[in-house]
Design a protein that fits this description.
It is a single chain. By secondary structure, this protein is an alpha+beta fold. It has helices at 2-6, 38-50, 87-101, 113-129, 135-145, 187-195, 202-209, 215-235, 246-252, and strands at 13-18, 22-27, 30-35, 58-62, 65-69, 74-75, 155-157, 166-169, 172-176, 183-185. It contains 9 helices and 10 strands.
Length: 254
C-alpha cells in the first residue's frame, strides 16, 4: 500500500483540500495529490520542471497519486485574512513572477480574450438568475472586467498564483506550488491572482516585478477572476462569501 508505507513514522494525515475533482493530503513532510484528471498532473510535473523559480520536489508518481516534498516556510497569506508576511516578501513574490514570465513559453496555450469573455457572460448570467449577487454588483464588475479582455503578449503563467501557493521564509521565496493551471497567458492575470483580496500589497508586488504594469488591468482581473470563481467555489464546497473573499471583492468594486 502506498500511503501506509509513507506513514510508518508519522502520527496523522492532514486533508489539505478535497473535492470531487482532486484531493491533497499531507503525510509528514510529503504531500500526496490525487487527481481524477491525469492531464492536469502531466502539466503540473512538466511545468515545475520548466519553471525557473523554486518548486516542490517530485518524490514519485503512481497515477492517480503524485507525491511532492513539502516546501520550507509558510504561505505568503490566505484569502480573507491579513497577511503577516513582510513587504519584502511580497516584493520577492513579484520578482519571482517576473522571472517566470521572462522564461521560455510552455507548450500549452491558455484561453484567449474571446473565450474568457464567453465564459464570463455565462457566469454573470448564472449569478443574476440564481440570485447569488445583486444585478448592479454583477453589472458593475462585468464592466470593470472589460479592461482585462484585450490582446496580450503570452508569457509563461502559473495560472493560479494565489497567496496560499507561494511559500516564504522571512523575506525569501522558498517555492511555489500547484502548477496544474500553468500555460501561456496574460502576465497581469498572475499578478492579479497573487494580490486578490490583498490589494494593500499591490505596490510591493509591482515594485518586485520591476517594470511598469497597468494597474487598471490588474483591478479588472480582480473582478473577472472573482466573477468566474463564485459558482465553482460554491459547487466544490468552498464559501466565496466568507469575509474578504470573492464576493466581498466584487462588492468592494461598487
Amino acid at each position: 500500500m502506498i500511503i501506509p508505507a509513507i506513514m510508518a513514522d508519522v502520527e496523522e494525515v492532514e486533508v489539505v483540500v478535497a473535492h470531487h475533482e482532486r484531493a491533497t493530503l499531507r503525510v509528514g513532510d510529503v504531500f500526496l495529490k490525487v487527481d481524477a484528471d491525469q492531464a492536469r498532473t502531466d502539466v503540473e510535473v512538466d511545468a515545475m520542471a520548466r519553471a525557473p523559480i523554486p518548486t516542490p520536489g517530485v518524490l514519485w508518481r503512481k497515477p492517480p497519486v503524485l507525491a511532492l516534498a513539502a516546501l520550507p516556510g509558510t504561505a505568503l497569506g490566505r484569502l480573507g485574512e491579513p497577511s503577516t508576511a513582510s513587504s519584502a516578501a511580497w516584493a520577492a513574490a513579484g520578482a519571482a513572477a517576473r522571472k517566470l514570465h521572462d522564461a521560455p513559453l510552455p507548450p500549452w496555450p491558455g484561453r484567449g480574450p474571446d473565450e474568457i469573455a464567453s465564459l464570463l457572460d455565462g457566469e454573470c448570467e448564472w449569478l443574476v438568475t440564481n440570485g447569488v449577487l445583486p444585478t448592479d454588483v454583477v453589472t458593475r464588475n462585468r464592466r470593470v472586467a472589460e479592461a482585462a479582455l484585450r490582446p496580450w503578449t503570452p508569457v509563461f503563467t502559473h495560472g493560479d498564483l494565489q497567496v496560499t501557493h507561494v511559500f516564504v521564509d522571512g523575506d525569501e521565496i522558498t517555492g511555489v506550488i500547484d502548477w496544474s493551471e500553468a500555460s501561456q497567458g496574460d502576465a497581469l492575470f498572475d499578478l492579479a491572482t497573487l494580490t486578490l483580496g490583498h490589494q494593500e500589497h499591490l505596490d510591493d508586488v509591482v515594485a518586485g516585478y520591476g517594470t511598469d504594469v497597468d494597474l487598471d488591468v490588474i483591478r479588472a482581473w480582480w473582478s473577472l477572476r472573482s466573477l468566474l470563481a463564485v459558482r465553482w467555489l460554491a459547487e466544490h464546497g468552498f464559501d466565496p462569501s466568507s469575509p474578504g473573499c470573492e464576493i466581498d471583492v466584487l462588492r468592494s468594486r461598487l
